[in-house]
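Treating backbone geometry as a discrete language has practical consequences that deserve illustration. No coordinates are needed to read the tokens, only the vocabulary itself. For completeness, the protein is quoted in full, as a sequence line and a line of structure tokens:
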Amino acid sequence: MFEYRVEKLLVNQAEARMNELAREGWRVISATPNLARGYGLVVVLERPLR
């Protein structure tokens, strides 16, 4: 089983935030433009349930 997380990020902050979450065991499974706002990214992450 997995748990999922959705992050809404600005592009210039995305790399640092994704690296922080990776250290917590999260894996990026999708990154798409945030079309609702017209800027930024929507990033979906997963990790095994602990």
The CA atoms of residues 4 and 45 lie 6 Å apart. The chain has a mean pLDDT of 97. Residues 11-23 form the longest helix (13 residues).
